[in-house]
Design a protein that fits this description.
Elements lengths: L21 H7 L13 H12 L10 E6 L2 H10 L9 E8 L11 H19 L3 E6 L4 H11 L5 E10 L27
Antiparallel strand pairs: 1-2, 2-4, 3-4
This protein binds flavin mononucleotide (FMN).
Length: 194
């Protein structure tokens, strides 16, 4: 079947193989917290950033910033900054909200959902590239937000939401199915339990 979708301009799919489809990636994604020393290539990093910014955002404001950390010294500072990110990985991507690009007033907090969509895209992309990753929450834990802002020298309107540790998994990553029918509500159907 011919796909009705074209690859966007500026994205070269042929640079590196796509290893699995989205369904497989969603079912295989797990948090990986132990990594080998092997580096993540520039090509893979570029792909992950493309995946991230392909995510949806409220009114397409794209209120995200991505800080790519390969430098060992900064990487270690992040690890020392809190219990949330103790995992040694060759690469970290910090996803932060830029509240100057966020929606106004009561809608401002939507940046968290926008950045979360970008993070999940990165995690699925990581899985598809046979890498591993862990989402480590920062915001709303104020002390960790301040520590990351200080390490990266960020102004207060850039709020780090998560550190994503990325690398080649040490050991096997075991997929598992978390489907639970108790969390599913077929609204308006006969015998529906709500
Ligand atoms: C918002 C958020 C924050 C998280 N923070 C951490 C964290 O600080 N440290 C950590 O090791 N894992 C963290 N995780 C990963 C979860 O522990 C993990 O997703 C969960 O246990 C389910 O396991 P799985 O990802 O392998 O399916 C976080 C996940 C989310 C979505």
């Amino acid at each position: 079947m011919i796909s009705p979708f074209f690859m966007p301009k500026g994205y070269n799919k042929s640079k590196g193989a796509i290893h699995m489809d989205v369904e497989e990636a969603m079912l295989k994604r797990r948090s990986v917290r132990q990594f080998t020393e092997e580096k993540v290539t520039e090509q893979q990093i570029d792909k992950l950033l493309h995946y991230a910014m392909s995510g949806p955002s409220g009114l397409n404001r794209q209120p995200w910033e991505f800080y790519v950390i390969k430098n060992e010294e900064i990487n270690n500072k992040i690890i020392d900054a809190g219990r949330f990110s103790k995992h040694h990985s060759p690469l970290k991507i910090i996803v932060a909200g830029n509240t100057h690009r966020a929606l106004p007033l009561k809608m401002k907090q939507i940046w968290i959902q926008d950045c979360s969509a970008a993070i999940e895209n990165i995690l699925l992309g990581v899985t598809s590239l046979s890498l591993g990753a862990c989402w480590e929450g920062v915001y709303p834990q104020e002390k960790f937000v301040l520590r990351i802002q200080s390490i990266l020298n960020l102004p207060s309107h850039i709020i780090p939401l998560a550190v994503i540790s990325i690398g080649h998994p040490k050991g096997e990553v075991i997929p598992r199915d978390q489907y639970n029918s108790r969390y599913v509500h077929f609204v308006g159907e006969e015998n529906a339990i709500i």
